[in-house]
Every structure is written in C-alpha cells, then in structure tokens.
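Sanity check. The docking grid for adenosine-5'-triphosphate depends on where the pocket ends up, so I'm generating a full predicted complex first rather than guessing from homology. Inputs follow.
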Amino acid sequence: MNNRPAGTDHRGAPEGFAGDSCGDVLIVDDFPDTLALYESMLSENGHRVRVATNGVDALRQVEEREPELVLLDVSMPGLDGVEVLRRLRARPGAGPAVIMLTAARREPHAIEAGLKEGADAYLTKPIDSRELLARVRAALETFRLRRMLDAQRRDHVAMLVHDLRHPLSSLGLLAEVLEADDMDAHDRESAVSQMRTLCSEMARLVDSVLAASRLEAGVFSVEPRTVRVGAIVEPTLAVFTPVASRRRVALTFEGSLALEVYADPQKLRQALDNLVANAVKFTPRGGRIVVRVSSDGRQTIFEITDSGPGVAEGERGTIFDRYKQGSRGRAAGGAGLGLTIARGIAEAHHGSVSVTTGDLGGAAFRIALPSRASGGVQLSASDPD
Ligand SMILES: Nc1ncnc2c1ncn2[C@@H]1O[C@H](COP(=O)(O)OP(=O)(O)OP(=O)(O)O)[C@@H](O)[C@H]1O
Ligand SMILES: [Mg+2]
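Predicted complex below; grid placement will be based on this.
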C-alpha cells in the first residue's frame, strides 16, 4: 500500500503540472472569423485546438475524441450551445472536464441556463485575448489539480481501509481462539488484552480520519480557557512513558507544570499526543525524548524533541499536509494525519507548529500558542525559529 497515485511525484504534483497548462481544446462557434481568431490565439499558446461550426459537428468531434476543454458559443442556429452542453454533460463521466460558454452581454438568460446545465464558466464577447488565454489556462490547471486530489483521495481511502482490515482480521482470529474450550485463564486474559489493543488502534485511526475531515470541513472549534500546563502534559506523559520504556526510550519533562496556558485542554492534549506518539514511533531503542514547556510572556511553547532520525529538510514543508508521510513514515505505519491534526489544533488557537533539528540530534516539533495576557487570540503567533 505504499503506492503513490499514478502520475504524481512524491509531493503529489502531477507530472508536467508546473510547466504544461496546455490542453486539448474544442472551439464551437458559428462565426468563422471568431473561430479563426480563438484558434490562432490558443494554438499559438501551445494548446491542441480543433474547431466546429455547429452543434452537431461539435458532438461528433467529441465522440471521436473527448477534449479537456470546450469553448462553446451559446447562440448558434440549429442545435444551440445550451442544448449541446446538455448532451455533453449527459455523456458517461459527465463529458469534457471543462465547458466554458461564450456569449454576448445581452444573452444573460442563456448564460444562466448554461450554468444550470453544468457549464464551468463563461466569457462575454467581445473576448479580450489575454483574458481568453488566462481563463483557459486557469480552468485547465484547476481541473488537473482536482483530478490529482481525487486520485490521492481514492488512494488514501484504499490505504485506510487496508489499515483497518488488518486489525479487524486479527480480532476475528482472536475471537475464534477465545471460543476454544481448552483455554486456561492466562491465555484467555492475554487474548482479551490483545483485542483491546487492536480496538484502540482502530479507534485511533477512525478518530484521526474524523478529526481531519472536521478540520477540512471547517467545523473544528476550540473552547480555550486558562489551564495549568500540568493538566495537559501529565496525562500525555502517563500514557506514553510505559510505551516508551517498553521500547527502551527515556521520556522526560523539562519546565514548569505550574505554568498557565490559554487553551482548550482536550484539543491541545490531542495535538501533544500526536507529536509524542511520533517521537516514540521514530526514536530507536536506547534513545531519548524530552517534552519541554516554556513561556516568554508572549507565547507558550511546547517542544517535543527526540534523538531519532529527524526530518529531512526537503520533507519539512510537506509532512504537515493531510496523508503526507516522510520516507520513514509509511514503513512505520500510520495514516499521515497526526501532524495535520496537530497543525489544525494549533491554528485554531491562533498558534503554529514547526519542525527543526533539536538539541538531541533528531526532530524538534514546537507548538507555539499566543499567551492571552499579551493580546490573546488577536496575537498571531510567529514561528519561533
Ligand atoms: N519525531 C519524528 N521523527 C522523524 N520523522 C517524523 C517525526 N514526526 C513525524 N515525522 C515524519 O512526518 C510524517 C507525518 O507524520 P504524521 O504524524 O502526520 O503521520 P504518521 O505518524 O505517519 O501517521 P499517523 O500520525 O496518522 O498515525 C511521518 O510519516 C514521518 O515521516
Ligand atoms: Mg503520527
């Protein structure tokens, strides 16, 4: 499940995306002069252009080979633009990716009807050549970006289903084991505890996906209040210290637990948990993790630093994006959502998250939150680096 979506490089940009915003264009207009003008402008700019002088010819050409973009005149004798549009959108897969109407200013009804029938945009005649080129280019770029994101989404949904499938199969197996009559109490207890672990693994994955979707939908809110740092950090340390020590990694705290911070304690803890979970996951045996909290009056900084492999400079800009993992990430499991959620939580507090190389040689992740005393939510937290 380590495959990247087809046609994308490691950062998810489609091949040739930056340099090539030219496309396969069909221009439909009953005025030969208009056709010739648009055709020469678009082909001079590198687009592959075909032309049609009426609706029937346009549909025939689309049937022959579907263009990426159709520039369609709304008022033509015979089959008019809106009817052509309707038939194009009725094609399997909803027809060409972008359909752009061209219409005179006095034809607002036709434009309105066209937009209702699924046109993506319109241009009013007479069309300025620079506008035509810019709009066609922008429409093609938007379409390609959307296609790339859809492909990524499909890929990641498949990945998440796969990640849930594994613990689910294990749960089934353990249930079968538990059915056996000859099981002693100790084995039974161990099977039940494994089932609990698998359930919390699945719940964590589902919760991450839900939190990321809420962030994306913009329905993620925080309820900040003044809380002691200890109330946030202590539960995190209590959960992760035994996990770290099983892996022979020392997890310690530096700073004052009595400091006060203006934050939503549950949400901030979730962000901190995600960063500490990463540190535990990526730090090899014998390593160290330190959680530090400090304040300069302007901001409160939570730093999680480890002696692990760190994050390569080239990956620092992308690992906070949804589903993005660094070179080590996928091999270590997970969905690539932990940092996205941490960043969303920090930003909901008007703060920020950043990564650098820390004093233990590995990664240092810092959440910086504005202190309420110095302007609270109005203050935009600057990157501490
Ligand atoms: N402490 C760290 N040391 C080294 N690399 C890290 C560290 N924390 C994060 N990374 C890199 O950043 C990537 C993104 O982290 P993120 O928490 O978003 O996803 P994940 O841990 O891979 O999956 P999830 O958190 O959804 O279980 C990781 O895959 C890894 O490549
Ligand atoms: Mg993570």
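Relevant for the grid: The first strand starts at residue 24 and ends at 28.
Also worth noting: The chain has three domains: 24-146, 150-217, 225-378.
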